[in-house]
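Supplementary material to the annual report.
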Amino acid sequence: MSAASQARRRRGRGDLEIAAFERGHHVSYSACGIPFLVGGMVDDVDVLVARMPQVFRDDHAIDVHLSHEVSAIDLDRRQLTVWDAAAGAERREGFDQLVVATGAVPVRPPLPGADGRGIHGVQVLDDGVRLRDLLLAERPARAVVVGGGYIGLEMAEAFVLRGVEVSVVERGPHPMGTLDPDMGALVADALRGLGIAVFEREAVTGFETSDGRVTAVVTDARTLPTDMVILGLGVRPNVALAAGAGIAVGPSGGIAVDQCMRTRSDGVWAAGDCVESFHRVSRQPVVIALGTHANKQGRVAGINIGGGYATFPGVVGTAATKVCDYEVARTGLNEAQATAAGFRHVSAVVDSTTRAGYYPGSNPIKVKLIAERRSGRLLGGQIIGREGAGKRIDVIATALWNEMTVFDMLNLDLSYAPPFSGVWDPLLVAARAAIRAGR
Amino acid sequence: MSAASQARRRRGRGDLEIAAFERGHHVSYSACGIPFLVGGMVDDVDVLVARMPQVFRDDHAIDVHLSHEVSAIDLDRRQLTVWDAAAGAERREGFDQLVVATGAVPVRPPLPGADGRGIHGVQVLDDGVRLRDLLLAERPARAVVVGGGYIGLEMAEAFVLRGVEVSVVERGPHPMGTLDPDMGALVADALRGLGIAVFEREAVTGFETSDGRVTAVVTDARTLPTDMVILGLGVRPNVALAAGAGIAVGPSGGIAVDQCMRTRSDGVWAAGDCVESFHRVSRQPVVIALGTHANKQGRVAGINIGGGYATFPGVVGTAATKVCDYEVARTGLNEAQATAAGFRHVSAVVDSTTRAGYYPGSNPIKVKLIAERRSGRLLGGQIIGREGAGKRIDVIATALWNEMTVFDMLNLDLSYAPPFSGVWDPLLVAARAAIRAGR
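Predicted assembly:
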C-alpha cells in the first residue's frame, strides 16, 4: 500500500490505474502490534489499522480487493490469475507494472501433532484477534512459546500480562539469537526474573494432543504440559508466487532487487518481507522481515513507478524489543556474524546508567560494541537495559551507517544533562572500552 | 582532574609529579547536578562528587590542593603564584607543563541592588548546598529566575518541586535562546502549563531591597515582588588568569587551543569551559560550557601530556534539558545561526509520537530539522516532547557529525518496535518533511 500511495502521489487517476489484491481481510495494519493486542495493552483492534481500504479507494483511487488471492503471474501476457474468494471465481487481471509484496510465511516445521487445536501462529491481524478472543474465553492456565525471537518474547510478555504461566523453548543457546551469547544469557536471566521459564538448546520434537487438542509440547529433553502453544519460529520470504513466474530469487532466499526495488524481470518490482536487502556492514544480501524496511521499500518502489527517483540503500540490521521492563536492542553484526563476514574484531561490554547515577529513575544499561581490529571500524552493537536504554541503539546504527570508527565515536557530541545520561554517555563509555580492547 | 588522571595513567609517579590547585572546596563534582540538589531530587550532596580529593592523592598520586587560588602564571620562569587561603600565605610553584582549567564565570550585570541578600548564582557546589539549605530554612513563597536558559529552567523546576511560586524573566523573545522562536514559544507554553510565570522580551533593570535583602525584581516592564532571586544569565570563559600571562584568547572569548588542547604558548594546555571549541557545522570557534566537552577535552590534554595522542575534533552544539515532564533538546545550527554562517536553508517541523500511537505511554514529540537548500545537508535539529523524546537528538547529532543529508537520513536503519516508535521513526518523518520543504 506504500508503493501504491506513492505512485498515486505522482500520477493522477486518469494517468495510472492502481489495483491491490490482498488475500486477507485487512490492508495497511501493524502486524507488530499483534502481541500487544493479545496481551491487552491494546484494546481495540481498529487502532492497529493505519488506513481502512475505503480510504485508499476514496482518497487515493486505489482499487483494494480484499479476499482476493493472486495464484499466478504471467510475465509474457502481463496478466495475474486472481481467486476471488467471495465470488468463488477465478479471473485474469492485466498489468503494465507489477509490485510483488507477498511478505513472509511463518516457519512451521512438520512435527507430529502440529495441527492440533490450541497451536497458533501469529502472523496476520486475524490471528491476533482470534488468539485474544480465545485467551479471554478459555482462560488457559499454561502456555508454551516455541522460539525465543522477538515475536516469541513479545508473546511471552502477553501471557505474563494475562496471568498465564508461560514457558519459552529455544533451540539455540539463548533467546534473541541475533545477540551474542553473553548478552543473550542476560536476556534469559531477565526473562526468568519475570517468571518466564526458559528452556535453551532444546528442540521441539512434537506435540501431544487429546481429542485433537494440544496437551503438551515435547522437546528432546522434556515434556511440557500446556493449554496453548504459540509458534514463534521466525518467518521466511514468501517467494512462491514470484519464483513460479520466473522472477529471480537471491542467495538469501528473498526476491532479488536493485536499489530502486526493481526485480530482474522487466516492469516488476518487489518490496517488504519477501525481498532481500543489502547489509551495509557485511555487504551481503540478507532477509530481514521488519515493518520499517517494508514501508521504506514500498515507498521507494512507488516513487520510481510514479516517475520519480528514490533508492533503498540497505540495512545495518537494527532491531529492538521490549519484554516487560526490559529493553533489548541490536544493530550491525554480532561476533559470529562479524567472523563469518571475514572481519577480525574486538569487543567490549560496559555497564552504565540511563541517567546520571544520582538522578531519580536512573536505570542500568549494558552496552556491547564490536569493532574491527586495527582500523577500529564499528561493526555492531547490542544494548540491554530498562526504560530509556533500547532506543539508544539508533546512535550506533547511525554510526554504522556512516562507517565510523570507535575512535571517532568517542568524540561524538551526544546530549548530556543529568536526566539523560552521565557526563560520559553510555555509548561513549562503550567506545572508550572498545578502543582499550583493541590495544 | 580528567587531564591529571589521564597523564598519570601514562606516566608513573617517579616519572611525573602532578599537582592540582583548586580555589574551592571540591574537585571532580557534577555542577550540572546542582539544580536537582536544590529541587530535592538529589538528597545527598556527596553523590554529586565523582571522586574525593583523597582518592586522587592516594590512588593516583595527584597532589590536590583545595582552597588554593592561582593568582598569576609566569611563563618565562615556569612558575605559578598560589594563594593558600588556609595558611593565609602566598607561594610559588614551578611547572614544566601547565593545564589551564579555570572554567567559566557567571555573567552578573552591575545592576542596582544586585548585591542584595537573597540574590544567588548557582555555579559551584557550595552555592547549591547553601541555596538548598536556605530554601529549607526560609521557606520562601516566591522566587524569580533571571534568564531562561538551561540552568534557569532547571532552577525554575527546582522551585516548582519545592512548592515555591516561580517566575522566569528572559530578555530574549523566548526561553531557551538556542532554539528557533517557533520551538522556543512551545517551551514557554509548556512552562506556563507547569504554573511557571514567563516574562519574555523583558530586561531586568535592578532589584529592590529592604534592609539589604531583595524584595523585588524590576524589569523594563514591571516590578515582580519576590523572596529570592536566581541569576541564570549564562557564563563566559574564565580567561583572566590565562590572558594575564599572555596566553592567547580566541575570537569567541575562550582560550585558543588546537585539536590536541595545546594553547599557543609552549607547554601550556587548556581544557573545559575556559576554552573555545571548533563548531563542525558553522566551522567557527564557539564557547560552549558543558561538562561533557570539558571531560573529553581534559582527557585529550592529559593523554597528550602523558605522551599519547588524542584529539578533540570539535562540537556540533548538542544540548538537552528537562523541565518537569518536558524534554527539550537541540543540536547543530538553529535558523538564525545557519543564516549567520552563510547557509541558505529550509526547515520542517513534524508532530509524531515516542511510541507507536496505539502503544501505552506513547507521548507527543515535535521534531524540527534544518537543512541546506539544494544539497539537503543537515544543519541542525530541535526536539520538544515528553518522556522518551529528548535523547533522540543524539541521532541528529551523529548525522550532523557525519555531514549527512536529509535524503540519506531518511534511509537510516533506526530501530522499530511499537514500544519505541511508529513504523516511521519521528526523525525519519522529519527528514521526509525536510526533503519536501526543499523541493
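Residues 291-305 of chain B form the longest helix (15 residues).
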